[in-house]
C-alpha cells in the first residue's frame, strides 16, 4: 500500500511568490489533515478535510493560505503571496474515517527568502 | 490556545542508557499519542493511549496516559543508535475530529 505522498519535497521561493503544495493521501482515507512545523517549534494543525469538505480550518494562519480537495482525493495547499514567516515543513496526513493516529507524509520543506 | 509542554527539548545519551520524556498540558485529553520523526521523514506513530492510567509497551518503548489525563510519558529502554530522532507527544481533545495538538519535540541523540 502506498503511503501518503507529498510533492515537492523542497521548495525555495521568493517573498511574494506563489507556491502550491500537493498531498496524495492513502487510497480510501476520507480524513486528510495539513499540519505545519516552524523551525524548532511544535507541529501545528492547519486544517482537516473529510472527503472533499473542510471539517475544520481553524488553524489556517490567514487568507493567504487556500486548501482544496476536489473530488475527495488529493489535496493542494496554496500560499499566495508567500511571506518569510511561512517557511517551515508542511505535513499532510490521512486516516480512515473513524480512526485515530494517522499516517503522515514526508513533508514539504518550504523556504521563503 | 491549549499548549503541550514537552520536555526535555533534547537529550544526549550513550548507547544502552534509558531515555525518558514527558508532556504536560492544562487541558484534558481523551487520547495521547507518541510519534517519532526521522530526518527527512514524517512523524511515525509509536504508541497510542486511550484510557487514563493506561500503560502500554511496544518493544523497548513504554508510554503511560496520566491519571489526570493531562500528561503522558514515554520511556525508551536500552537505547540503540537507531533511536536517534525527534519524538513528539500529541494529544487529542474530545470531539475534535482527529485534530491533534503536538508538543515541540524531544531531540534524542545516541552516541556509541
Biggest interface in this structure?
A: A-B, 26 and 25 residues
**CA-CA gap between termini of chain A:** 37 Å
Q: Shape of chain B from CA axes?
A: globular
What would you call the quaternary organization? heterodimer
Low-pLDDT ranges of chain A: none
Structural class of chain A: mainly beta
Strand content of the residues of chain A, in percent?
over 45%
Strand-pairing-aware structural class of chain B: mainly beta
What is the count of DSSP helices of chain B, taking H or I runs of 4+ residues? 0
User: What low-confidence regions of chain B span 5 or more consecutive residues with pLDDT below 50?
Assistant: none
- Mean pLDDT across the residues of chain B is 93
Could you spell the SSE succession of chain B in H and E letters? EEEEEEEEEEE
Helix content of chain B: under 10%
Quantity of strands of chain B, as a count? 11
Could you say which overall geometry of chain A the principal axes of the C-alpha atoms support?
globular
Instruction: Report the C-alpha radius of gyration of chain A, rounded.
Output: 13 Å
Proportion of residues in helical segments of chain A:
under 10%
Strand content of chain B: over 45%
Topology diagram in text:
The complex is a heterodimer of chains A (113) and B (112).
Chain A: E1 5-7, E2 10-13, E3 19-24, E4 31-37, E5 43-50, E6 53-56, E7 65-68, E8 75-79, E9 88-95, E10 103-104, E11 108-112
Parallel strand pairs in A: 2-11
Antiparallel strand pairs in A: 1-3, 3-8, 4-5, 4-9, 5-6, 7-8, 9-10, 9-11
Chain B: E1 4-7, E2 10-14, E3 19-25, E4 31-37, E5 44-49, E6 55-58, E7 61-65, E8 71-76, E9 85-92, E10 100-102, E11 106-111
Parallel strand pairs in B: 2-11
Antiparallel strand pairs in B: 1-3, 3-8, 4-5, 4-9, 6-7, 7-8, 9-10, 9-11
